[in-house]
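Input.
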Amino acid sequence: MKRRIAVAVLFSVVSLAQAAAHSAEVGGVKLEDKLQLAPGGPELVLNGAGIRTRVIFKVYVAGLYLTEKKQSPADVLALGGPKRVAMTMLRDLSAQQLSEALAEGIRNNTSAAEQEALKPRIDELIGIMNALGEAKKGDAILLDFVPDAGTSVVLNGQVRGKPIAGEDFYRALLRIWLGDKPVDADLKKGLLGATG
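Output.
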């Protein structure tokens, strides 16, 4: 009997260790170490993660998934293939607050000429975000990029709106967090894999 209990305890410890090896935790939110955007698609790895803080408020946990780990913004932006920015809300936000923050982040990190070229697609994104109504604490919002398909907005597992075309658009989105004027400097470091 004691042997069975010892084996059961050992099995539980090994299972917990394996589970810990396959996910990271940031701000109480679990993030998978690896995932696929579509069955049979390339495997993406968690490049890094962090918490978006505004003033003193924790707004969301973000994770960046790429086909291979990169430590500089230039390397991330130059990397082709599928990508994901995963956001888990830590507080309630209106869709308008969320869409305005994304639009402001793009404006702050994109030239006037690029903004002009991207404007119809930025408007598409704002339309999709505003249609969400609100983002509640615990909601998962994914910004997925698949080459030849574009950028999809996914709320709690449900795709919203139509994919937005162009890798240039997704690069503009990434610069919200990784550009010269990121929304949160500490989050930028976290997404690039800095641990301290």
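The first strand starts at residue 23 and ends at 26.
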